[in-house]
Structure formats: C-alpha cells, structure tokens
Amino acid sequence: MKQFISVNDVNDINALAAKALAYKANPLVDARLGANKRIGLLFLNPSLRTRLSTQIAAKNLGMEAIVFNVDKEGWALEFEEGAIMSGNTVEHIKDAGPILGQYFDILCIRTFPSLKNREDDYSEMFINQFIKYAGVPVVSLESATLHPLQSLTDIVTIKEQLLATPLNKKPKIVLTWAPHIKPLPQCVANSFAQWVNAWSEAEFVITHPQDYELAEQFTKGATITHDQDAALKDADFVYVKNWSTYSDYGKVYENDPGWMLTEEKLKATNNARVMHCLPVRRNVELSDEVLDSPHSLVTKQAGNRVWAAQAVLSELLKA
Ligand code: CP
Fold first, then answer.
1. For the structural domain made of 149-302, what CATH number should be given?
2. Overall pTM surpassing 0.90 (yes/no)
3. Is 162 annotated as a binding residue?
4. N or C: fewer beta carbons within 10 Å in the chain?
C-alpha cells in the first residue's frame, strides 16, 4: 500500500479487516515495525476518535506520533497553484509539503470540505496537494469527500459481529439518513457506500429523503429508496448518518424528526445492530433509547478505530 485515501488503495478488504482484528487480539505483535519512524497527524479540523486512535495505533507499532493542529497553531495554508498570496493565506503547500515530507515518514491529514463549492471539494484539492508535495505516504484522516479509516473500521466491526453470530445469508446493511441541525459533509456516507459496494458481501440499501441523493460514483450498486420503513425491513445492520444535499450542494432541505431511528422502527429489522461514526447529536440524529440499547454498536465501533488504523499503518510501513 502506497497511500490510504480511499478503498481504491486497498487490494483485499477482507485481508485488511482480518489484519485489524488480529491486531485487536494481539496489539503489540508488531511493536518494533515502526521503530525510528515518525508519523505526522495534521488536523485542519476537529477530531476525537481519529486523532487518538491513530496515535495509539502508531504507538502500538513503535512509531513516534506528532500531532499538529494546523487550523489553530499553523500558518494559514494556500493550496491554489499560482495563487497571488495577498489575502489571508501565509504559506503555500508547495513550500510546506516538502518540509513535512522531510520531517515525517507517513503524513496523515484531516481536511473537511467547504460545502460551498462542490467542484472544488470533490476535486479533493487539499489532500491531493499534500500528496503531490510531501513525497511520503499520505493517509486520509477524513478528506473533503471520504473517510476511509472510518469505513474500514465499519467493515471490521460488521465482520467481527458476523464472526461472533454468523448469518446463513448475506447481511442486509442499510445506510439511513438522519436529521441534523447543521449542514454536514457527505464524506462518511460516501465512503461507507464506496466500501460496502467494493466489499460486495452484503445486500446494501441506502435510504434518504428526496433530494438527498449522494454522488453516484460512490453509491452505484446499492438499492436506493426514500421509504425508510421498507429499507429497514429485515436489516441486519443499520448505519445512521446525516449528510447535507449533494445536488444543490451543502444545503439542509429536510429536518423531519420522523427520520430519526427509534426502537419502534427497529422492530421491522432482523434485530439489527445500529452503527454511527460519532460524534452523534442525541435525540436529533439518534434516540437515547437506541444508543443506550443492546442494538447499539457505536462504542465497539469507535474502539475498532485503533485496529483499523494499525492495520493501515502496518501496510504502509511494510511497503
Ligand atoms: N468518527 C470520527 O471520525 O470521529 P472524530 O471526528 O472524533 O475523529
């Protein structure tokens, strides 16, 4: 593996997920693999799970991890080629990138979308500029359109459940839109759809209100419906996530609390396990009764972030 930006960087999803679960069983088995290597974790946006789980994963592999909150502590970076830097940006990625590449063996970046200009966001300019100028392997800690470490974790978590309680059929996985008060990126939903489609070991259904279609490049292969009740029928896993509109980009068209998942709605499922990447707005996106019930996998899911990150870093170190 040369970089970890999307599922397209992974040769074998099952093998990578198995590696993550092996690290969960034996976290320090490769404790010297990253000795004398340094990993930089650059955050242009906030994080709890991604930041801490990747640091722990790096430490388990013997690497030194340095966190840099670029948004709060760094110079304002310019990403546009040929920019006349007479505005607020202070340092061009063309200058900062090669320096970061000298300081670190692996560079990890979190950079959210603007949600203002779809073309810019979906070109993934920021992370692509880091890749272009750093010259070392780059890992996405969530980019403008995707969140691959989260999605690998999600597959790991589903596989872990299936290993513990096997089904005699392909699992039915439902990605359902949920209400939220703010416009959120499409990254987690795009990425989950991309990974589940690439994994191709599930019946995959996406349900959302009208006008909340995600980009087809990620959803192609899934069944898409506006009927949440129909989607939930016989579901084995329900992944709950809000996203803002893609077509009329970055808008909140809908905030109907009727889309929030409840215990009542879960009665139509096959005793489904409920997933969410966190952070979650309780009783807006997901009800207390579901989050605090045995249906909820959210804490296990967040715990698995360490093992997914460790599997990815290990692959990069061995490349
Ligand atoms: N799920 C996730 O990426 O969490 P953080 O934003 O806290 O890192």
1. 3.40.50.1370
2. yes
3. no
4. C
Question: What is the C-alpha separation between 124 and 133, in angstroms, rounded?
Answer: 14
Distance CA 35, CA 135 (A): 20
User: At the fourth CATH level, which superfamily is domain 7-146+304-318?
Assistant: Aspartate/ornithine carbamoyltransferase (3.40.50.1370)
Question: Do the Cβ atoms of 274 and 238 come closer than 8 Å?
Answer: yes
**If you compute the radius of gyration of the chain from its CA atoms, what whole number of angstroms results?**
19
In whole angstroms, how far apart are CA 78 and each of 5, 70, 91? 21, 12, 6
Determine the Cα–Cα distance for residues 221 and 65; give it in Å rounded to an integer: 38
pLDDT digit string, tens, across residues 255-273: 899 999 999 999 999 999 9
Position 128 scores a pLDDT of 97
What letters, b where the CB count within 10 A reaches 16 and e where it falls short, cover 152-175?
A: bbbbbbbbbbbeeeeeeeebbbbb
pLDDT of residue 67: 98
- Residue 38 in marked binding region: no
CA of residue 52 to ligand 1 center, whole Å? 9
The predicted structure's pLDDT at residue 254: 84
Of 53, 191, 277, 306, which is best to mutate to test ligand 1, by the most ligand atoms within 8 angstroms of its C-beta?
277
169-190: pLDDT as tens digits: 999 999 999 999 999 999 999 9
Atom of ligand 1 nearest to the CA of 48: 7
Atom of ligand 1 nearest to the CA of 51: 8
Pocket of ligand 1 contains residue 50 by CB under 6 Å: yes
**Is the CB–ligand 1 distance for residue 150 below 6 Å?**
yes
H or E element in which residue 84 lies: none
Q: How does strand 138-140 pair with strand 172-177?
A: unpaired
Does the CB atom of residue 151 touch ligand 1 within 6 A?
A: no
Q: Which residue do the tokens 């999307």 mark?
A: 6
Provide φ and ψ at 252, rounded to 5°: -105, 105
pLDDT (average), residues 206-231: 98
Q: Which of 41, 43, 45, 48 to mutate to test the pocket of ligand 1 (most atoms within 8 A of CB)?
A: 48
Contact predicate 151/195, CB 8 Å: yes
